[in-house]
Amino acid sequence: MRYAIVGDLRRSFPEGDPVLAGAGPIEGADVVLYLGAPLVPDPDRAAILVELGTESLGAHTGENAGEEGSNVLGFARYRNGADAPSRLVELVRQRNTPESAIAAARAMLEGAGLAVALCTDQAGRILDRLVRPKYNAALRFLDEGLATQKDMDLTCRLGLGYPTGPIERVMSGGLAHHHDVTRALFETYGTPGYAPARRAVVAAARAGEGS
Asked: What is the Cα–Cα distance from 152 to 168, expressed in whole angstroms?
């Protein structure tokens, strides 16, 4: 599957990533990935992929009363803040996205050595919607004095089998980054679990002062 990359904001594919090495010229490419660059629709491509942050794919394609869908899909390679990106890619479809476009996008991503999870077009997709409320809860428990960070993380590692505890995980990715993601989700859904925890608000304020 021949693919090309347009744009230079490579959160998903940092310098040296093998996906970058496998990209070719846009002429003749079956799949085109847009990384921070304006989308240029092209119905003749097998699939077009738009890199997403927390936003919905519809922010790039427009929406049509629940009938939207074309060969344009969204994708987000999971990355815990400043940590290195994982192999997991959340591939975003719309209601009428052709199965042929999904198959082409999946083949391109899996051919590049990535693992693909298909989801519908929701802000935050699967992972952020699942884990961000848990991180917020752990940070609030820390504020309330339920336990120390060390004890909460140890409990989750040994009791639940997690490779890392929730607080060490969110701090590794960056509290300011966590604030930005949860704030965007809270503004979209209004669910209390997405409201940024106090420590994340402090970290974001301090990061803003530093910049």
From this structure: 10
